[in-house]
Automatic annotation (TrEMBL):
GO terms for cellular component: membrane. It comes from Chironomus riparius. Residues 132-295 form the CRAL-TRIO domain. One of its GO terms (molecular function) is phosphatidylinositol bisphosphate binding. This is CRAL-TRIO domain-containing protein. Residues 1-23 are annotated as: Disordered. Residues 10-20 have a biased composition (Basic and acidic residues).
Length: 348
């Protein structure tokens, strides 16, 4: 049971179970009430009912038999790729299909990039053990939890913020590594499929010292990886607690983003403006919501990542073998370019 419910729910858990189903929403107010009451600690709400139907329609999701046939086709394609691993399970393949709106060609491109990035960017995909001090340090000084609830449109919200203005990690690549580890966990746990992702970036402690840690090469690698290798459907990015530095940071990042993503960045001068996009009730308490402390949510994600420790170790060898790639190996220049532009992989 989420810790934030302790202040909202009856002290008697039996009373909570009896009272929760009777809760009604005022038709006049039409408030958004997140579905949290039946969840174990740090579970992710999955779409259901009308929300799930609308998401399936938006993604053009076919019936279960067609999805099963698509998975067979993808596996047959993987079998013919000597450079790619064959260890992708049905759940993650289904997530890739949803993220690509069931375009088999896009899925092939994403999968090739998913495994290629693991070989091309070892700073993101090796030593992925949350028990290592450098990763523990990131969790101590930065919060990056996906929130348990969903927006009315069925989107997952992820909050990111640094905790201390004067405390920076020795290696910001470790923060990017953790973000991708969370992404890999979500590939497993988003079993029904969400409409997309919404990111809330809190810039309250952003300083030039923080900004200087993010080199163009590192940022490019991370954004290419997220945009090209993961089945992410980014709906919105919201930046809150802004300062003059934020404009500099946004302009620095924009060249590495696809045009449609650049158009989805929103800068907010106050939280009331954010609430027009993300329901207040589903946000952490620091932002006026009922989802509990962002620090508590971050700690729950730390524990969840620990549960995947062995899986991350096993995945170290799951990467493209460039020596076996038809047509020759792909190096950094092929993947990231030399002039700041990203060069697409060609997929047979």
């Amino acid at each position: 049971m989420f810790k934030f419910l302790q202040n909202l729910a009856p002290k008697d858990e039996n009373q909570l179970e009896k009272s929760a189903p009777k809760k009604k929403i005022s038709k006049k107010r039409q408030a958004y009430v997140p579905v949290y009451l039946d969840l174990p600690e740090m579970s992710l709400v999955q779409p259901s009912g009308d929300m799930s139907s609308k998401i399936r329609e938006e993604l053009r999701e076919p019936d279960a038999d067609t999805i099963a046939k698509d998975i067979v086709i993808i596996r047959e394609w993987l079998d013919k790729q000597p450079h790619l691993p064959k260890d992708m399970d049905d759940q993650r393949l289904t997530t890739f299909l949803r993220g690509c709106k069931f375009s088999l060609e896009k899925v092939k491109q994403k999968l090739d990039m998913y495994y290629t990035m693991r070989n091309a960017i070892p700073e993101f995909f090796t030593n992925r053990d949350i028990n290592r001090p450098e990763l523990g340090e990131i969790m101590d000084i930065a919060d990056m939890p996906p929130l348990p609830g969903l927006t009315p449109g069925g989107c997952r919200v992820v909050c990111l913020r640094a905790v201390d203005r004067d405390n920076m990690p020795n290696n910001v690549a470790d923060g990017m590594k953790l973000a991708l580890m969370i992404g890999d966990i979500r590939l497993y746990e988003e079993k029904t499929g969400v409409a997309g992702d919404v990111y809330v970036l809190d810039a309250s402690v952003a300083t030039p010292t923080h900004f200087a840690k993010f080199t163009p090469t590192l940022v490019k690698k991370f954004l290419v990886c997220v945009q090209e290798a993961y089945p992410v459907r980014l709906k919105e990015v919201h930046v809150i607690n802004v300062s003059p530095l934020v404009d500099t940071i946004v302009n620095f990042v924009k060249p590495f983003l696809k045009e449609k993503i650049r158009e989805r960045i929103h800068i907010h001068s106050n939280l009331e403006d954010l609430y027009k996009f993300v329901p207040k009730e589903m946000l952490p308490s620091e932002y006026g919501g009922n989802a509990g402390s962002i620090k508590d949510l971050n700690e729950q994600w730390r524990n969840k990542i620990k549960d995947y420790t062995q899986w991350f170790k096993d995945q170290e060898a799951s990467k493209a073998n460039e020596s076996l790639r038809p047509g020759g190996a792909r190096g950094e220049t092929d993947l990231f370019g030399v002039d700041g532009s990203f060069r697409q992989l060609s997929i047979d």
